[in-house]
């Protein structure tokens, strides 16, 4: 049996073999060389003459007073925040709540300066005719016009429309 090797393949194998031989010679030269001289030549000097090494050159602890008064990671290092203002015990009264009186304007009558409105309750049937200045269920009729009625109770005003939009 005869081995057939392509010329291009054999050239590639020879180049790879040459590279491997070259790398092995480099590794062998590194192992033969004596690196103990390089390790003895390197010296390390901490250069501590100005701080800890010489106690005569140290600064006294009192010179660090500002640093020790406010250590970096303590809560006292936070910026100053003024306390919130103290609220007075006398509070303003809340605005009056407008309560629906439960009345509906069912009709309005205006004739020769006389105006009356027919006000009925949402809860039950029936109603009453009331003129300006009269009181209905604790609400005083302030004014009556063609659009509706204005009621008042302890300073609160409510407008009831004859033709509500809703």
Pick out its properties:
about 20% helix, 3 helices, 3-stranded antiparallel beta sheet, SH3 type barrels, alpha+beta
Description:
With 166 residues, the chain is of the alpha+beta class. The chain has a domain at 103-161: SH3 type barrels, CATH 2.30.30. The chain is 22% helix and 25% strand. Strands 4-5-6-7 form a 4-stranded antiparallel sheet, with no helix packed on it. A 3-stranded antiparallel sheet has the order 1-2-3, with no helix packed on it. The N and C termini lie far apart (108 Å).
Shape: elongated
CATH architecture of the domain at 103-161: Roll
Radius of gyration computed on alpha carbons:
52 Å
Give the N-to-C terminal Cα separation.
108 Å
Number of discrete helical segments:
3
Strand arrangement, major sheet: 4-5-6-7
User: What is the chain-wise order of helices and strands?
Assistant: HHHEEEEEEE
What's the rounded overall pLDDT mean?
80
